[in-house]
């Protein structure tokens, strides 16, 4: 008991000395007097590192030049620097708490200690001696800094624009300083390429974004795998116990790093695949959308590695389950994960049996109302067409024809991502089907070309007469789209298909009646270009209704003289689309005339 009381008295006296020196350090003349004062703190840190750190943290917000110099001298001390760094790390691990005040964000000094610790750590890392002393607990420092940033960006009062906060204790400034400290940590460790890779791609800024912080962690994990692979083992040992922490920020930070590290072969060698998959499956049932999103990202990274057939097929099914999610980010991650699998296992012919199933379940996503999901789904369809075995090619050709109208219509959207993915996928379709429509498809992707669309429509009608009714039913569905560009595109495509099908006359009166109803509805569309296109196509459908009436001998005579009637009937002409770039007449004259 007496020894305990003595220790408490000594600790109190040491803290008093530290506080007095730190409080008056700015008024002590530079040179020998200043160095003597700092030497006292350095000597005390050898025996009472924790007390010195606690006292110094009280004066580290804000951390002026004098206090920064003290941190630097402590980090360069041959003895005690490791202990000082260790106690700074313990403070950094705590959750900072604030309450809003008229002067900005303030809080209990004990809870501001993590912010001061981040400042102190940043100053200490400028010393090579500190970097060497930290080697023993590098993973802890790395994860603590990331978690600290997560605590800050998740705070209700956090805003990325520091100018909106009128206090020196700006949360955004603290977060940015912690990110800079993280960069300094990697640079001092010789991981310059990881820092530059993140910088060039603009990923560092994601760490300071409340909405995209975890996305930034995933990119950082990938940078470490590529440029700092030796640290992956130590970091895994640090984060695995935190995968189910009491603090959500600690849990999500650890899970994001874990999911990101799964792209590393080292991770797969250290942990059994069965264990990893089991953990990711558990996350898929979590009620939090963010955790389910991280699960799918992890599955996508698992798909990068060589797997057994049974496991690969199981991964496909689990990724497809993610398509049912309500959150756009989760659905896009599931599509991207499956894309990783297809891209890294192109020669796995045994996956061909899954391709038709994937294509069938993709259909609702091809016309999804969310632009990002739509673009990703269209791109994934194109990846399904790569290196198919002969027995699967015929099945996928059926899927191409079933989705041809949606692809052609979405090619005329205003979204650059959707158009780019449509162009790429249609080029893959053109190759697999043996068509010669690549020039027309490329022109449609960049210009409002009625001539190109007419030629594609004629090719489809003449080559697949038994599918014309199906094509028209798809255009009818898109006439009800909430997007005006798609309604107009559906009306225009209907007009060209009807114009080119006269010779075959394979459309039933029922389909024509449905088209009449759909186009009549578009005549009153609030968008003028849609109503104008509907009026032109309506003329084509009415004429088809008249020519479809004859039966028997009259129908045969109609087919025999179809060329004569075609010479009289003019090709439909639509107004230029207000949603796309105008036609380049020089381009079309060179290609078509």
Give a nutshell description of this structure.
The chain is mainly α and about 600 residues long. The protein has 31 helices and two strands. The N and C termini lie far apart (about 105 Å).
Shape: elongated
State the share of residues found in helices, binned by percent: 55-70%
For this structure, the quaternary state is single chain
Number of contiguous helices: 31
Beta strands, count: 2
Strand proportion, as a percent range, falls in under 5%
Unreliable stretches (pLDDT < 50, length at least 5) are: 100-107, 164-168, 551-567, 582-593
How many whole angstroms does the radius of gyration measure? 33 Å
Architecture overview:
- The protein has 593 residues and is mainly α.
- It is built from 31 helices and two strands.
- Mean pLDDT is 85; it is low at 100-107, 164-168, 551-567 and 582-593.
- The protein is elongated, with a radius of gyration of 33 Å.
- Among the domains are: 1-189, no CATH class; 436-593.
- The protein has a two-stranded antiparallel ribbon.
- Helix 1 (2-24) crosses helix 3 and helix 24 crosses helix 26 (484-500).
- The termini are far apart.
- The protein has helices at residues 2-24, 32-47, 49-57, 65-76, 81-92, 109-124, 128-134, 138-153, 171-188, 192-201, 213-227, 232-239, 248-261, 265-270, 273-284, 289-302, 309-321, 328-344, 352-366, 371-384, 390-410, 416-433, 438-446, 450-463, 468-478, 484-500, 509-523, 528-547, 553-560, 562-568, 585-592; strands spanning 99-101, 104-106.
């Amino acid at each position: 008991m007496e020894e305990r009381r003595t220790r408490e008295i000594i600790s109190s006296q040491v803290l008093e000395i530290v506080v007095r020196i730190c409080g008056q350090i700015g008024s002590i003349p530079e040179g020998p007097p200043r160095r003597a004062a700092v030497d006292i703190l350095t000597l005390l840190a050898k025996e009472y590192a924790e007390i010195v750190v606690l006292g110094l943290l009280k004066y580290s917000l804000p951390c002026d030049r004098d206090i920064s110099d003290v941190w630097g001298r402590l980090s360069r001390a041959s003895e005690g620097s490791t202990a000082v760094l260790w106690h700074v790390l313990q403070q950094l691990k705590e959750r900072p708490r604030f309450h809003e005040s008229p002067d900005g964000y303030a809080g209990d000094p004990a809870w501001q200690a993590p912010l001061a610790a981040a400042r102190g750590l940043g100053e200490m890392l400028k010393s090579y001696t500190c970097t060497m002393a930290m080697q023993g607990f590098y993973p802890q420092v790395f994860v603590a800094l990331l978690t600290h940033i997560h605590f800050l960006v998740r705070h209700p009062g956090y805003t990325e624009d520091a100018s909106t906060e009128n206090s020196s204790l700006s949360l955004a400034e603290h977060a940015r300083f912690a990110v800079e400290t993280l960069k300094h940590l990697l640079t001092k460790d010789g991981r310059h390429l990881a820092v530059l890779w993140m910088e060039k791609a603009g990923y560092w800024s994601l760490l300071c974004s409340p909405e995209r912080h975890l996305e930034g962690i995933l990119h950082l994990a990938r940078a470490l795998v590529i440029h700092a692979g030796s640290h992956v083992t130590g970091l895994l040992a640090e984060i695995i116990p935190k995968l189910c922490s009491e603090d959500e920020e600690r849990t999500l930070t650890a899970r994001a790093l874990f999911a990101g590290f799964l792209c590393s072969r080292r991770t797969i060698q250290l942990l059994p695949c069965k264990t990893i998959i089991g953990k990711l499956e558990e996350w898929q049932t979590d009620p939090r959308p963010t955790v389910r999103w991280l699960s799918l990202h992890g599955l996508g990274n698992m798909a990068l590695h060589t797997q057994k057939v049974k496991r690969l097929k199981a991964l496909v099914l689990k990724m497809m389950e993610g398509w049912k999610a309500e959150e756009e980010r989760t659905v896009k991650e599931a599509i991207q994960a499956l894309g990783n699998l297809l891209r890294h296992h192109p020669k796995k012919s045994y996956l061909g049996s899954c391709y038709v199933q994937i294509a069938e379940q993709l259909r609702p996503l091809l016309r999804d109302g969310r632009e990002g999901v739509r673009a990703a789904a269209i791109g994934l369809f194109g990846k399904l067409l790569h290196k198919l075995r002969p027995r699967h090619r015929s099945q996928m050709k059926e899927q191409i024809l079933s989705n041809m109208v949606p692809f052609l219509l979405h090619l005329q959207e205003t979204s650059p991502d959707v158009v780019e993915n449509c162009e790429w996928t249609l080029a893959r379709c053109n190759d697999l089907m043996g068509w010669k429509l690549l020039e027309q498809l490329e022109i449609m992707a960049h210009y409002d070309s009625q001539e190109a669309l007419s030629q594609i429509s004629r090719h489809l009608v003449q080559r697949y007469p038994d599918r014309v009714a199906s094509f028209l039913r798809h255009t009818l569905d898109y006439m009800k789209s909430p997007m005006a560009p798609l309604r107009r595109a559906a009306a225009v495509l209907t007009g060209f298909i009807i114009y080119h099908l006269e010779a075959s006359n394979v459309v039933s009166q029922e389909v024509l009646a449905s088209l009449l109803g759909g186009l009549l509805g578009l005549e009153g569309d609030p968008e003028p270009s849609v109503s104008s296109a509907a009026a032109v196509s309506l003329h084509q459908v009415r004429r088809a209704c008249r020519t479809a009436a004859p039966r028997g001998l009259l129908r045969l005579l109609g087919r025999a003289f179809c060329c004569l009637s075609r010479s009289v009937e003019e090709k439909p002409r639509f107004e230029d689309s207000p949603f796309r770039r105008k036609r380049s007449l020089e381009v079309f004259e060179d290609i078509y005339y």
